[in-house]
Design brief:
Elements: H1 3-8, H2 12-20, H3 23-30, H4 39-59, H5 64-85, H6 87-91, H7 107-143
Keywords: Membrane, Transmembrane, Transmembrane helix
Amino acid sequence: MTGGVRQLGFPWPVLVGLAALAAPRVVLHDLDLIQEGTPVNALLVFGPLAIWIAAVLWRRPPRPFLTVVVIGAFYGVFLAAGHQLLWDAAFGGAAPSLGGNLADVAPAVQEVLLRAAAAVSSLATGVVVGVLVGAVAALLCRLLPARDRHAAP
């Protein structure tokens, strides 16, 4: 195992897979197939985060906070990619535009600026989610005793 993987407690594909658990909500939301405030939406929002915490509690990586921040960063990449790929579907053909002094900027330039802002926002959202969930996971790792891996079942 490499040093980075050793510190994170999971191989890179597992970290990406854990992040990917949150990707279906991005797709379903952008396609307007789920609505905020519904039980299905809540499950798709909080279910993956609970699985991230459960995985960290089960595996007990040396740096649980960092592990979940990395998962959150990968989630941000999925979030950004999903929003970019589903941009037209999400806006139903009526793409957003800039207002105020920037309203006169060419539509193609506006789209590039808005897509870039959405990508940065998605990446930041993923990292912030990782920080918040990572803090919970790290706290729970301190509060809850680790299971004895060598004990008889």
